[in-house]
Model the fold of this input.
Amino acid sequence: MRMMTKTVRAGLLMSACGVSLLAATAPGAYATGMPQLDFANPLVTGQVMWGAVIFLVFYLVLSRAMLPRVSRVLEDRAHRISGDLEVARAAKHDADRAVAELQQARKDAMAEAQANLQAALDEERQAAEKQMHDINARLDMEIADAEARVAAEKARALGALREIAHDTTQALVQRLTGLAPDAQLVAQKVEGASARRAV
Done:
């Protein structure tokens, strides 16, 4: 409002300066053929006076009726723009905070997922180690059992072999010598030969 009032006042002052300049230079202008600047003519003076009155009325109507409305519209627009800017700043602040919260939630989710993955891997590794331990224990038992059976079978086979060797030796000695050998002596010799072969 003040700016427009100052502008209108400056325009009025410039118009008054222009009219005074015209009045000062009017005799020279009239002399060169410009009758509209002959201020000695009452018609020209009346036109200038009515022009000044119309300009003054126009100025008063503008300054009292139109300029306040324009000023109110401009002030309302400035308030609306500043309010919109405040809303935009608040929305930007909220958006920045939401982005920061989203990034933090993403980091937390990644950390939690990593922790869960590590826990699952540790659990699976422990389960695999336990299963491997159980398998190894079962295999050790089966190997020990197989070795015991092999040893028993070997002992049984050796026992059977001793009997066969004892019977064969008795039969050979009897056939070669024609005499029945002493069973205890044959058993000692077979045991001695078995012991040497076992070593």
